[in-house]
Write a structure and sequence with these properties.
Largest sheet: 6 strands, mixed
Structural class: mainly beta
Number of domains: 3
Number of strands: 23
Order of helices and strands: HHEEEEEEEEEEEEEEEEEHEEEEHEE
Distance between the termini: 21 Å
Number of helices: 4
Strand content: 35-45%
Shape: globular
Helix content: under 10%
Length: about 400
């Protein structure tokens, strides 16, 4: 399920644009214009004007597929509110269609066993809400070549506070027919981690999950061969718990159209260039969806259509035995105290000071009580799940 959900659409538009209210501002300069604008222009648009945001798509993998609808609360706000009560339809050109069901506020899904993308066919989304209709362009579902190789290399990168150690993930891929040219990737991370002490009633081994939220795209349009080598996917460094026990990455490769590539490219450029006085002034970035009732009203987001290929790889801490990675422990603030005795008044004193009971054990007739200054220090469910992913392969039976 996690893989299917991640492969259905691009990275969450809300995640990518969080913090960038300029995305929702209309400027007179187009992103690709080569001439610079001298004066900033802010149009006279009511802050109460709301823009529809569409985030979803269809792939060649079996559904259900998810479409998220939200409204920006104002032209300069990044905060959104879910859109409920809309009629959302995914259509196949000259073929079937399906009305999605609203499963949560603003989140619409196809049925299990419902419409499925087919290579070479075209698809679009249509939306009706508050007597206004919206449609995407017809999107070709292109075939996607497999990932030739998924691998990592030990690298040191420059971080904000100095050099960081970790592993850089890369992929190699190619299309022998030279038909793909435009690619997008997502990934899903899962990893096992443990807390500093064991507890008789709290789990100490847990699993964390993290789907990618950024933009990862690549193109071979400038090359003779449709070949990408050593294309970076993500960097995993020593400041997290990801590599402390067992780590897994699932990389999802999409074959996309040139139009979709330009959309993600524009968002990526906006993401990278914000921050200085001399950066280009960004424009509102339009996707492939329009308001057919009122064409003057903008619509944000993109309806995606692509075939997907995946590759999976595990990394274990023992692989760094000869060249250790020295991790920054997230438990450096943790403090523990062990108190002996059944009715030791020190226990009540620690309770009053806000400490928590982490564990008790009786040895040779003496009760030993362990107190901790935070539940995070002894209960791993505060940062993960006690149950591994359903398809998780443990390093050793009964282990992580």
């Amino acid at each position: 399920m996690a893989l299917r959900q991640a492969a259905m659409s691009g990275p969450s538009l809300r995640n990518i644009l969080s913090g960038y209210k300029v995305f929702l501002m209309i400027w007179p300069c187009l992103l690709w214009m080569t001439t610079a604008c001298i004066e900033e222009y802010t149009p006279e648009i009511s802050r109460s004007q709301q823009l529809l945001i569409v985030d979803g798509g269809i792939t060649s993998e079996p559904g259900p597929y998810t479409v998220r609808l939200s409204l920006s609360k104002g032209i300069q706000d990044v905060f959104t509110e879910p859109v409920s009560g809309a009629v959302v339809v995914i259509e196949e050109k000259n073929g079937s269609s399906e009305v999605l069901s609203e499963v949560d506020p603003g989140r619409y899904e196809t049925a299990t066993g419902g419409i499925t993308g087919k290579i070479g066919n075209e698809y679009r989304i249509s939306i009706t809400h508050n007597d206004e209709g919206y449609e995407s362009a017809w999107m070709l579902l292109k075939d996607c070549p497999p990932i030739d190789s998924l691998y990592w290399m030990r690298e040191r990168h420059q971080g904000v506070n100095g050099e960081i150690d970790g592993i850089q993930w890369y992929i190699d891929t190619h299309d022998p027919d030279n038909n793909t040219r435009y690619y997008r990737w997502e990934y899903i991370e899962d990893w096992a981690f443990s807390v500093p002490i064991s507890s008789s009633w709290n789990p100490t081994l847990c699993y964390a999950h993290n789907p990618s939220s950024g933009i990862i795209i690549g193109s071979t349009e400038k090359f003779t061969d449709d070949l990408l080598l050593k294309h970076p996917i993500t960097y995993v460094d020593h400041t997290t718990t990801r590599l402390t026990l067992r780590y897994r990455i699932i990389v999802i490769q999409h074959a996309i159209t040139e139009e979709e590539f330009r959309y993600w490219e524009a968002l990526e450029e906006l993401n990278e260039n914000l921050g200085t006085l001399f950066d280009p002034i960004p424009a509102e970035i339009y996707g492939n969806i329009r308001n057919v009732t009122n064409p003057d009203r903008s619509v944000l987001g993109y309806f995606t259509s692509s075939t997907v290929r995946t590759d999976t790889m595990y990394v274990d801490a023992e692989e760094f035995a000869n060249a250790p990675i020295y991790f920054d422990s997230p438990y450096g603030f943790c403090n523990f105290v062990v108190i002996a005795g059944d009715r030791n008044p020190a226990i009540s004193n620690y309770y009053r000071a806000g400490w928590l009971l982490a564990d008790t054990i009786r040895d040779a007739g003496i009760l030993y009580t362990t107190m901790a200054n935070s539940r995070y220090c002894f209960d791993c469910t505060t940062a993960g799940n006690a149950d591994p992913p359903a398809d998780w392969i443990p390093l050793n039976p009964g282990n992580q």
